[in-house]
Amino acid sequence: MPTGLHLPYVAFFGRTLAEYLDMFCISLDQLREGSTLDCPSGPDSFVAEACAAGCDAVGCDPMYAYPPDELRTRGLANLDESFVHIDAQRAALTFRDYPAFKQAKYDAIARFSDDYALHYGRRRYVAASLPKLAFADASFHRVLAANFLFTYAHQDFGGLYEGREFDLAFHLQSIDELARVTRSEIRLSPMGSFASPPRPHDYRDATIARLQQLGFRTELVASNFDSGLAAFNDVLVARRIVRAH
Ligand SMILES: C[S@@+](CC[C@H](N)C(=O)[O-])C[C@H]1O[C@@H](n2cnc3c(N)ncnc32)[C@H](O)[C@@H]1O
């Protein structure tokens, strides 16, 4: 059995805009150019904060099928439960500042819940599940995808999940779908395994190969983000190669 953090379910767990900028090695100025899909968005406050800062951002998540009050209640309960699991596995974590990480999750869900209530039923938050998204081809300039793909692969393959449904085939179908809905760029994180000792995620190289087949140029960019959960914090940046006509 691999060591490292493990979870029995997909946590409704979300990051802040500041965490997203670090994690994806991207700036607000870059984000202001063109539209962004955050997939999945969970209870992160990226969409709310980015829109407030003048970006065009849309979040999608299967949990957006729930109305605001129910999602706020379910989300907070899920977050409390996830921290019971994570607190119990502190020895597997490498956080520089665990209390700050934890606080950021509660800040994110509070900001998200308020914004979700304001924008419920409109374009900003869309109920959707990989590997099939409810968006037309090339709907977004870029897609940011963090902490569902790769993270919820089974532990034997570099993820932290105890289930096996998000296997390599699921990941490659999801990559195809992210490529379908983006015009220009896909950023994926994390690229490292949750196992100890650290290693690249088992699905990383197959993902890179698939993106290249789909016509993207790929680059692994080292991030300073302190995920605390996995040792490799690279972000995979895939840019669509525009062919001359
Ligand atoms: C840990 S959160 C990640 C949120 C955010 N991207 C972040 O990094 O903070 C994982 C999310 O995956 C969502 N999820 C579960 N199954 C999914 C699926 N089949 N397709 C897309 N998202 C899914 C969950 O609802 C949950 O909100």
Describe the structure.
There is one protein chain. Strands 3-2-1-4-5-7-6 form a 7-stranded mixed beta sheet, sandwiched between helices. It has 7 helices and 7 strands; from the N terminus they run ααβαβααββαβαββ. Strand 1, helix 3 and strand 2 form a beta-alpha-beta unit. Helix 3 (46-52) crosses helix 5, helix 4 packs antiparallel against helix 5 (98-119) and helix 6 (168-181) packs parallel to helix 7. It has helices at 17-24, 28-31, 46-52, 68-88, 98-119, 168-181, 204-213; strands spanning 35-38, 56-61, 125-127, 140-146, 182-189, 216-221, 235-240. The protein has one domain (17-240): 3-Layer(aba) Sandwich (Rossmann fold), CATH 3.40.50.150. It starts with 16 loop residues before the first helix and ends in a 5-residue tail after the last strand. It is of the alpha/beta class and 245 residues long. The model has no long low-confidence stretch (mean pLDDT 93). The longest helix has 22 residues, at 98-119. The site of S-adenosylmethionine has 18 residues, from loops. S-adenosylmethionine is lined by residues 10-15, 40-42, 44, 61-63, 129-130, 146-148.
Write a compact overview of the structure shown.
This protein has seven helices and seven strands. With 245 residues, it is α/β, with parallel strands linked by helices. Strands 3-2-1-4-5-7-6 form a seven-stranded mixed β-sheet, with helices on both faces.
